Amino acid sequence: MAWATAQNVRDRWIGPFPTGVSDAQIDTLIADVEDSILGEFRDIQQRIDDYDTPPDPPNPRAIPLARVVKVVCRVVIRHLRNPEGMRSRTMAAGQYSTANTYGGDDPGSLYLSDEDRDELTGNGNLGRGQKAFTVDTIPVSS
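Request: output the structure for the sequence above.
Response:
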């Protein structure tokens, strides 16, 4: 069950695409991301199907396939832009110095960010317990 394609990734890429990256390699990355999504969101295929053909009663957690494709492509692009998982790189001209800082325990790994998870759960920006509120600053006795 492939949701995204290599062409979906290429269509979303801004700027020159990395040379030497084949569609087969992109498809492998897509399969890895989709497997991670299925592992974390076991009902996602049912939610996609429920969006396409709403059941009665409707599923409030239904999700459009386009959103899932967008998240899959975003994870793959994040990896392709920084395959080594480098957080910072310092280079100097005097005495030819260089330093690289890698992030996390598994540099260059494919991962779902909090934003990705929020989109897949359907919670949007309020998915982490944040609630909108107002504070009335006018005293009651005025």
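The CA atoms of residues 21 and 80 lie 9 Å apart.
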